[in-house]
Amino acid sequence: MIASDPRDRYGTPEVRPLVDGVDFIERDYAGAICGDARQWLLPDGPLSVGETPHEVEMAAWCACACRTLDITMRREGDTVVWEWKEPDPGSPYSNTYRFDAEQYDADVERATNDRSWEWPSAAVARILGAILRSRTDWLDAWTCEVGEVWSPPGVLDEIRLYFRNYVQQPDGAWRSSGHFGTTRPVTDEDPTAQAERLAQEITAGDPRKANDMRSEPDAPLDDWLGTPDHSGPNSNKWYRPL
Questions:
Q1: In 3D, which of 134, 142, 189, 149 has the Cα closest to residue 168?
Q2: What pTM does this model have?
């Protein structure tokens, strides 16, 4: 785990896996960057290995992720297996790491529970996002889903969040009809207390009518709210079942 300075708007906390105490990404793939801890170090995140094998875009050499290191993770009895082909085009070589499953699970849980790198507004965003996503009945009632809740590096006194809107078509299908979102100030108060209070406020009724919520369907989201800027591997490929 490489922490970042939360005051640096260009800095992100980077997850670096160690195998036998060695950062094999740095050793074997110098110049590649790994995932943002705000997205990786979550319960059931990309590094968690269940019964279904999945592929994780472990590292990338640029923000556009045009060259990546993709690792297939699977469980074989009491062993967790990481296996990948070398990222160079046409390379015939592959690599495999095997871990004791019990120790692997314990290490992933320990890393997930260690929030020492997390700044307070990032903690509020993480907790609030989890609460809102757990309110499935409320989201269904208002035909929306949580897009993302985040705290940009360099912004320590607020969080940002947005929802996606859906409308039902005559044929019964649901179609996205835009976004609505807002910002909320945060303080040095306990992050859990702040997140629970914000969740109570937002879920009290129609989220579109919550205080300072904005809906601008004709403008790109990042024009009026900004979008999360997670450096490293593509988030859409971090946790892909095979």
A1: 142
A2: 0.78
